[in-house]
């Protein structure tokens, strides 16, 4: 017997080919392949035993040949504003998180691409954890699949790669994950509803740009000046602002700048004016994010008035800018926060 294979780690096209070959080799009628395939992403089951339309023998054979890999649910927290945060436990004990943010018209799921992150942005809780490992493609998309398994009505309409990790430093897995998320035989989420967020990993930006689908790109800029940016984002040394902006200019689709406002670090009127000129050149929107706790405790959030005046300055310069409402603050739903909290609590538990 062949070793079990993980169909959830394959693009839908590759999974289809694998299933079809197996169905043929098993002497089963061809229509079984479509029935099996539908249970990966379109009408997902947690285990083959739940696929009641299949004969018991076939379910058992599938369980042996293609066991469906799962993420264990470590914790689910519900915010008073409807935001839900999920902590997933991976088979090797690593933990990652996803945040589901419902609004009137959409359900946005923020997913992780790595356990931890190597890039050490000073304001970021995940950065403080350091790098643990890359997620496999299936572990990235399973964050969506698990939520659908819990409740099909919760299926996200929008996906943002803004959880833990730097997606463009895990390109092969993110590449496959994007295909699964978008493909009609996969989760069928429109490319314009899928956003990859990056600090500006230039080769990764080029790879994303080369894909034909209209995936969205968000660039975590956080400062319009190289020296100031370097002080909060060590990656500036490897991929300087200038090169990141050049790669952004080559990205044919609309981009967004993410900008966390930190008092005295990147929030002056001059910063806004320079940011505005960069954004105008690229036709970029700016998302302003209030600084959440979890990063370097020495960093102080810009206050509400400062945030609004920074936004107004961008608007005055003709740049589309919005202040992203903080969601799920009561459950620490910002990047990496739950995990860090749990890790801190561990010694007391023992
Ligand atoms: N590594 C990628 C994607 C994950 S981070 C990136 O940095 O773009 C997703 C977003 O959360 C980024 O825009 C990041 O700047 C933001 N973020 C990180 N720490 C934050 C904090 N303490 N407060 C507010 N936003 C934060
Ligand atoms: Fe990594 Fe993004 Fe956090 Fe920076 S902001 S440390 S790149 S996850």
Task: Describe the protein in words.
- The chain is α/β, with parallel strands linked by helices.
- It folds into two domains: 7-65, DNA polymerase, domain 1 (Orthogonal Bundle), CATH 1.10.150; 72-345, TIM Barrel (Alpha-Beta Barrel), CATH 3.20.20.70.
- It contains twelve helices and twelve strands.
- It has helices at residues 12-25, 31-38, 56-65, 125-129, 137-150, 171-182, 202-210, 226-232, 241-249, 269-282, 304-316, 337-349; strands at residues 72-78, 84-89, 95-102, 107-110, 114-116, 131-134, 158-161, 194-198, 216-220, 255-261, 285-290, 321-323.
- The strands form two sheets. The protein has a ten-stranded mixed sheet with strand order 1-2-3-4-7-8-9-10-11-12, covered by helices on one side. A two-stranded antiparallel ribbon has the order 5-6.
- It is elongated, with a radius of gyration of 21 Å.
- Residues 342-350 have low confidence and may be disordered.
């Amino acid at each position: 017997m062949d070793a079990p294979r993980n169909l959830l780690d394959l693009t839908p096209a590759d999974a289809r080919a694998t299933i079809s070959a197996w169905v043929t080799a098993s002497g089963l009628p061809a229509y079984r392949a479509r029935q099996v395939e539908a249970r990966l992403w379109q009408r997902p089951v947690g285990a083959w035993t739940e696929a009641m339309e299949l004969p018991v023998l076939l379910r058992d054979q599938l369980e042996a040949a293609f066991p469906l890999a799962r993420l264990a649910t470590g914790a689910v927290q519900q915010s008073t504003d409807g935001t839900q945060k999920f902590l997933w436990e991976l088979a090797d004990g690593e933990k990652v998180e996803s945040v589901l943010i419902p609004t009137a018209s959409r359900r946005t799921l923020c997913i992780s691409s790595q356990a931890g992150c190597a890039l050490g942005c000073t304001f970021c809780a995940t950065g403080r954890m350091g790098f643990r490992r890359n997620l496999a493609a299936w572990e990235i998309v399973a964050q969506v699949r698990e939520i659908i398994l819990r409740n099909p009505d919760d299926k996200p309409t929008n996906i943002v790669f803004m959880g833990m990790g730097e997606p463009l430093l895990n390109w092969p897995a993110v590449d496959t994950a994007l295909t699964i998320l978008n493909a009609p035989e996969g989760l069928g989420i429109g490319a314009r509803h899928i956003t990859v967020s990056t600090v500006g990993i230039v080769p990764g930006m080029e790879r994303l740009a080369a894909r034909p689908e209209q995936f969205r790109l968000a660039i975590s800029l956080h400062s319009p000046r190289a020296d100031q940016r370097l002080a909060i984002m060590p990656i500036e040394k490897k991929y300087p602002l200038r090169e990141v902006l050049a790669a952004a200019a080559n990205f044919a689709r609309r981009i967004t700048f993410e900008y966390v406002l930190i008092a005295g670090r990147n929030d002056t009127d001059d910063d806004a004016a320079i940011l505005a000129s960069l954004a105008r050149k690229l036709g970029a929107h700016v998302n302003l994010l209030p600084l959440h706790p979890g990063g370097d405790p020495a960093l102080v959030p810009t206050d509400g008035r400062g945030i609004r005046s920074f936004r107004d300055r961008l608007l005055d310069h003709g740049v589309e800018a919005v202040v992203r409402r903080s969601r799920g603050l009561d459950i620490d739903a910002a990047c990496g926060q739950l995990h860090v909290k749990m890790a801190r609590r561990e010694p007391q538990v023992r």
